[in-house]
Design goal:
alpha+beta, two-stranded antiparallel sheet, five-stranded mixed β-sheet, about 400 residues, Cytochrome p450, binds protoporphyrin IX containing FE
């Protein structure tokens, strides 16, 4: 198949339903593929994606992390964000937020996560159909982030609406209106809390972010608001969909679910395999700062490049039997959480939430849930793979 016959359209409903056959074609026939739809190059092989992630001097994040049409600059649409910055600014910002987002703060959430998981499952009907997204995978990360930041849990539905609207707006067509409205509402919401925490600090992440200091530098108001937006979208939509995709995969692989329920030491490995096999973040963009030649294709400075994590993690050149879901494998090399300087700041939190959710689900539901994919609704997002609703029996 030639480049011309191949079509990569990340927002196309067929691609959203199952992108993996197209990824395979891309890896095999066009590992450096020019996608007219996204006006960007698409890298789909594991080695190429991993190399790009660890070379931020060539593959810059400073112009945004998803392709936009010519003339649309994502960094002008949003307040400054860690994920959309390069060194040296990225190094300073990451040091500042890491002062507040500490392993101790995350470890302290563990008991709370257990309680939230039990509480949500207590509200599930004992028989009949339950929307896993509305009842469980959506609220869990939203409540955890609300608790961590120190804002009321009751506002979680607003968090969900904002973050789901943001990830479903389509930057490649420049259709960002609803996403920008959601961002504006979110900035407005958090600016009130930030003012309160400046006046009266509490023992929460937002107060710690306001106070964080490295060599006399603090985060500016815009950087604080930008980080709140990033935390909400990066920390919420991703974990929600790891949980939803995981519920589907384990229902489709009852033998793995049985094995997990018998041997809980396998749960952390299963979380890694879920991340690899059906990655919640399918692709992230970069912009080239210099000319790069790869697999015979020349890419020019200023070109946009999409790194397909979802494809890299299914690359048989990196993972034997990559298309097989196997909770016994050790898929540590996956790039579902990124790699290099932008490696996911919330990785340990996401892993902890998913591990506890799986453990408790297996305890309480004793491997007997079923999903109804015919009644499920996929998230209409290019970068994020998952569900808007997922009926579970
Ligand atoms: C399953 C869940 C998650 C997945 C799959 C995921 C995935 C990712 C990926 C792929 C990146 C790299 C972006 C890049 O290279 O441009 C990233 C960065 C980031 N993630 Fe996560 N993430 C998850 C959960 C979380 C959580 C729970 C939080 C926080 C509450 C979080 C906060 C962040 C932040 C702040 C960054 C930016 C880091 C930087 O630019 O230095 N993520 N995440």
């Amino acid at each position: 198949m030639t480049d011309q016959q191949l079509t990569y359209s990340p927002f196309d409903p067929e691609m959203i339903a199952d992108p993996y056959p197209v990824y395979r074609e891309l890896r095999d026939s066009a590992p450096v593929y020019w996608s007219p739809e996204t006006s960007s190059w698409v890298l789909s092989r594991y080695d190429d994606v991993a190399a790009a992630l660890t070379d931020p001097t060539t593959y810059s994040s400073a112009s945004g992390v998803y392709p936009t049409p010519p003339g649309v600059d994502m960094t002008e649409l949003f307040l400054p964000m860690l994920v959309m910055s390069d060194p040296p600014r990225h190094t300073q910002l990451r040091q500042l937020v890491s002062k507040a987002f500490t392993p101790r703060r995350i470890a302290a959430l563990e008991m709370g996560v257990h309680a939230i998981v039990h509480d949500l499952l207590d509200q599930a009907p004992s028989d009949g159909t339950w929307d896993f997204v509305a009842g469980f995978s959506g609220p869990l990360p939203a409540i955890v982030i609300a608790d961590m930041l120190g804002v009321p849990r009751e506002d979680r539905d607003r968090f969900r609406t904002w973050s789901t609207t943001l990830v479903q707006s389509n930057p490649i067509r420049g259709e960002m209106g609803p996403g920008l409205d959601a961002a504006a509402a979110l900035y407005d919401y958090f600016s009130t809390f930030l003012a309160e925490r400046r006046a009266r600090p509490e023992d929460d992440l937002m107060s710690a972010l306001v106070q964080a200091e490295v060599e006399g530098q603090h985060l500016s108001e815009d950087e604080l608001l930008g980080f709140c937006l990033l935390l909400l979208v990066a920390g919420h939509e991703t974990t929600t969909n790891l949980l939803s995709n995981g519920a589907v995969l384990l229902a489709e692989h009852p033998e793995s679910r049985h094995q997990l329920s018998e041997d809980r030491d396998l749960v952390p490995l299963a979380v890694e395999e879920l991340l690899r096999y059906d990655s919640p973040v399918q692709g992230i963009g970069r912009t080239l700062t210099r000319q790069v030649e790869l697999h015979g294709q020349r890419m020019e400075p200023g070109d946009s490049v999409l790194l397909l994590f979802g494809s890299a993690n299914r690359d048989e050149r990196a993972f034997p039997d990559a298309e097989v879901f196997d909770i016994g494998r050790r898929p540590e090399r996956h790039v579902a959480l990124g790699r290099g300087i932008h490696f996911c700041l919330g990785a340990s939190l996401a892993r902890m939430e998913t591990r506890i959710a799986l453990d408790v689900l297996l305890d309480r539901r004793t491997f007997n849930w079923d999903v109804d994919l015919s009644g499920a609704e996929r998230l209409r997002s290019g970068p994020i793979r998952g569900f808007a609703s997922l009926p579970v029996q």
